[in-house]
What does this fold into?
Amino acid sequence: MKKRFPKNFLWGGATAANQYEGGYNEGGRGLALSDLITNGSNSSPRKIYYMDTKGNENSIILGMSLPKGAKSILKENQYYPSHKATDFYHHYKEDIKLMAEMGLKCYRMSISWTRIFPNGDDALPNEEGLKFYDSVFDELLKYNIEPVVTILHFDMPKHLADVYGGWANRRLIDFYTKYCETVFTRYKDKVKYWITINEINVLGGYWTLGLNSASEDLTDVNVEKGAGIHIKLPDEEARAKFQALHHLMIASSYANKIGHEINADFKIGCMLALSGIYPATCHPDDVFGAYDFRRRAYLYADVMLRGYYPSYSEAIFDEYNFTLQKADGDDEILRDFPSDYFAFSYYRTTTYNRNGAKTVTTGGQQGDSNPYLEETPWGWPIDAKGLRFVLNELYDRYQKPLFIVENGMGNVDAMEDDNSINDDYRIDYLEKHIKEMYEAVTVDGVDLMGYTWWGPIDIVSAGTGEMKKRYGFIYVDMDDLGNGTLERKKKKSYYAYKNIIETNGECLHK
It folds into this structure.
């Protein structure tokens, strides 16, 4: 008998502080590395400027480590999108009301680490920052919207990168767990659902890990489209990344332990970027290549959900002459405090072709385009059936509750003469993906907690730093250089999602 869709399903939306919150230098907030990233475009990667040891100015693109001894800088007369973003900091009451009118059951958001601990290693937290999130959570709960809080979402304190060398330094475990304990304690009666780290398998370089090294530069690549790319990290770069990610996973397990001691009812999940990968053909090398590609992302889920490094990790580490450095107790903390649920992002699928290497071999999810699929204006394949495939793939492997915490499409929205925004392409994407999600739950038996559309309101693109690449059901009047009134306006898709939530998805399955 076909199962019914769960009545307590968490329909929602998702954002990140560095793309949405703004107020970067207000309320006692400190500087994060995301505040140093310029805007860009699909053909011009976002950059971080720095001064080298000789006083020369230069830049790196996202994913690269800062050269040894260099210091990142804010450049005069340069637009930094995170500084204002779309200004949730000053519009949170208005925005939450719009989310409530849409019917959201939950809202996935992130806390800005430097709003709580401005430097990351401060002795005491910033009370003004804590009060801001108190107000946000109170506003959400007023409308019966469940907060789903990501503790670390591409939000590295600059001080921790400059002074300690980022997550390559084990001392960051203590700073992070102190931050976790602070927010767990403060919001223990307001927040039930937590995510420790966003998309851990795609973190790398200076921006997200704070790495500072002397290794050679990575290939200058289009970080958004990711098609036909081969990135083989230099050994030194890869070793620093693997060790840093180990420290992050240890920190996550300690956070699980601390959180459950503070409130046994907490649900604390891990989160990965796991858009799908197919073999380009049935040639055995394509099939195994796609499988091996996928395991390089599974590695982090295996550790965080199963509690140990899988046997195949040794072969991956050997490619880079890497020996994992563990401290006493590391194996035990990973084993004893795994994640409660598995959150993941799904946007697209790509293909693995043996004749053109395209894998980011340390865990990323880039690959070749698929000739059978349409693409967004930013070159992302649209594959609703792939979502059902990935849901089954992950649930078969881990047998833990799943949570789709990012799914959506970036597109250019046009204002009609009557000021309406008829984004039928977004509605089509939304409905097709939810239909496949529905089948995964009701036919295949996948245990799925919820679905949060990426960017229920327009936010700055993380990959390109653009505003014209819009995801939202709610339009924000702002352009790529931060100009505009910031007025909020409902798009046609707003009402489509509202209807889906009101009917618990049944409107798509009559």
